[in-house]
Structures are given as structure tokens and as C-alpha cells.
Amino acid sequence: MNDQEGLNPPPQAAQVLAEATAIGFTLSCDDQTGALLRTLAASKPGGHFLEIGTGVGYSTSWLLAGMDADSRLVTVEKEASHNRIAMKYLGGDPRVSFVTGDAAKFIGELVTSDETMAGKLDFIFADTATGKLTHLEEVLSLVKPGGIFLVDDMLPKAETNFVPDPRYIELTEKLENHPDFVITKLGWASGLIIATRKA
User: What is the CATH number of domain 11-197?
Assistant: First the structure.
């Protein structure tokens, strides 16, 4: 079995990736992670999804490819220029709402507003420091029983000479020891942790 074959990126992915390359944006997820996002999204029909860190929309395109017609995705990105690329190719999809702004502030509003989303989200993909290295408990509080929290980029990187980042070690330990979640660690792609809230 070759896990690099048969990934079949969604139609918009190539266009998004081409624009990312043109502006020197290199932080999009790899295709293995994208395929996992699509598969997990398909397991949540009618689901409510949150992506923290849209980037230019590459991972967003994979999520949408797995979601059914009744699912809804909110994706938040602080860089307006990046969000414009994502919206250029994906903004016509009625299932997705794009938010340009500070993720920490947005998460706070989801947790504390009168119409709180605490315990109501089926799937959260945290692809930026906010939600992983900061505001972890706030984000986890949004996940409903049976819901999934996914983080990537957990393996050491070449730019750090493959020295583990202590912040990611701490994150791993927090998720391993969290009383409300069961997790699986995948030393695959960029390094992933899948956490599911216990019923």
C-alpha cells in the first residue's frame, strides 16, 4: 500500500495551491492530511465544522469535499490577503463562511456569547497556534460529545534541525491526559493528533 497514491485532491485545490505558490505561501497542509480531513468530514453528516487558520483555503477545500450538503463550515483567518484567495475559489459554496480576524477573539465570542457554541461543534481543525498552543481549553469546550478535534504539524521540522518544540510536547501531554478526550497520535504526514470527546 502506498499512502501517497490515489489521494485525488478536490478540483479547487490545484488553483488554490498555484496562488499560494505565487505569493510564497508555504503553510498549506499536505495532501495526506487533506485526504484525512475529507474522510473525517464525511463521517459527520449535517455537521458543524470549525477551521482555525484558513490560510489560502487549501485544507478548506478538502474539508468541503468531504462534507455533505447539510453540513456547515466556519473558517477563520487573520490575514485578509490569504482569505481573499480562499474566497476567490471557495466563496461560492454556501456551506462555508469565511471570517477575517483574530482567531483568539473569535473563539472567545463562540464560547461566551449568548448563543454560545460550547459543546455544539462536530469537528474542529486547529491549523494555527491559536487553538493548539494557546486557547486550547476554550477550543476543546466547543467540541460536542463524539466530536473530533484535529491538530497537525506535530512532528519536528527541518528548519529546527528536527529538534522537538517543547510547546508541542506540552500540547501532546495535555491531550494525552485530558479526562474528556481519547486520542490517537499519528507519526505520519506532518504529525497529527485526533482527539474525540467522550460521550
Answer: 3.40.50.150
